[in-house]
Amino acid sequence: MQVEKYRIHGITKNTETGDYMIVLDFYYNERMLSNGTCEHCKRFNTSPAWCQSCDPWKSAQKFTSGNEEIDNFIKEFQTNSTEYDKVIEWIPFDRLVNRKEIKNKSEVEFMADWLDCIRIIEGESGNYTRSRTISRVELMKLHCSQASTLKLIENFKNHVQLDKYRIHGITQDTETGEYMIVFDFYHQKRKPINGICEDCKRYNTYLAWCQLCDPWREVQGWTSNDKDIDDCIKEFQLKATAYENVIEWIHFDRLEGPKQIGKVLYTYQLG
Ligand SMILES: [Zn+2]
Ligand SMILES: [Zn+2]
Question: What distance lies between CA 26 and its chain's CA centroid?
Fold first, then answer.
């Protein structure tokens, strides 16, 4: 009672069990006028357009993955969600369309468009609204056998704790049975100042460059006529973090007037 962590309203007794209980507002210190008012309990929200007492229960009620253990662990995450756009969902595989395999040896294995869209908070202080916006997402296999649900859950929790990406949820490939994380791999690098990627409609990861979409354009339409060299350059290209850092195959006839300077060939590149 010394530290005022909650707002305590009183004490009651459960007439069935005989237990005494404190009647309190558990999230009192987090409730702020600037977050807006909860429609359900009429108190201020605990984060923009989100009441931690009332809202997590709504998202936890209306889904099933077909596996009770997985349902329970997703619901556990959901009931502890502190913000609307951090809620983790069960995402049915058929809601992920235009799936494309990614072969650049990163953790991302597929990208897809999520029909239910990602969660965003719009508006400004005191007047926030929840919304969902069309977006591309990435998929990464959890590499666990279907039989080992516990291992799968542990794996997933590790990724959440890493806090490296923005995780939207979990899905199961209906053909292979494999579970996958649905996430935004480059979330921390995406910033408004970099502009919007024409392809995936998210903020770019660097000035006018989306590290997920743009490298694919670079690896197409050229060859050195040596597969090993092509593969080596393409590997660099697929990991390029900025437009001006892309390494290219340069045809010798695009280089004008090579001049010998010691052991270095000094050249001009054409257009
Ligand atoms: Zn509420
Ligand atoms: Zn993109």
Answer: 29
For residue 12, the CA-to-ligand 1 centroid distance in Å is: 21
Number of the ligand closest to the Cα of 210: 2
Which bin fits 246, alpha (ψ -120 to 50), beta or left (φ > 0)?
beta
Q: Which helix (H) or strand (E) holds 149?
A: helix 149-162
- Architecture of the domain spanning 52-185: 2-Layer Sandwich (3.30)
37 CA from centroid of ligand 1 (Å)? 8
Q: Residue ranges of the alpha helices (H) in 30-67?
A: 55-59
Query: Which pLDDT tens digit goes with each residue over 114-152?
Result: 998 889 888 988 899 999 887 789 999 987 666 688 888
| Distance from the first to the final alpha carbon of the chain | 74
Q: Indicate the domain borders of the chain.
A: 52-185, 206-271
